[in-house]
Hints:
The chain is an alpha+beta fold. It has one domain. It contains four helices and eight strands. It has helices spanning 2-21, 69-74, 162-172, 180-187; strands at 46-51, 59-63, 76-82, 87-90, 92-100, 106-119, 122-128, 145-151.
Amino acid sequence: MKTAMKYLGLVIAVIALTFTSCTKDGEIGPMGPAGQDGQDGNANISVLTYDLSDINSSDYILEIPELTQSAMDNDLILGYITTHSAVYPIPQRMVYIEVTNSSNHVIQTLYIDIVVQMAPQMYKLYFYRPTTQILSGLQPNSIKSLKIIIAPSSNNTSGKSEGTNMRSQLKNAGVDINDYHAVMDYYGLEY
């Protein structure tokens, strides 16, 4: 009987606590202060990577669906070539190339000028002997890769190329668009 009375007292205490601890919500409080705006994101930026280790000619054509007429007119489009020794913005003069064999041993060094031609859905690279108009054929493993960064513009209402405005924004932020790593860091993208 004593045990039953203890349980009954415990149940009554729990019920009493339940009813007395729950109260009706009060009025909604005032809105808190607005937070600081964060850094613009990179959700719409495209980084396209292409393996160029098989180039065996003086020019190379890539079909790129993302390279639309609208993108060429309005967006910021940057290209970077990765060689065995460095990353170069393109177009570029005097790119130092180390041609390697399958064992990654350097078998030849040379300098080339790289010219870019863009058309809708096409990105064409031309390789010239430095300071000449003579095309220079490349051997496989001369260039590792090409990265193209397409940073879409916001709405363009000024009639001015938004890509030019975006270049100015990068410059004003202290970002050298010739520095691949600085551009990738600015947009928060992986190398």
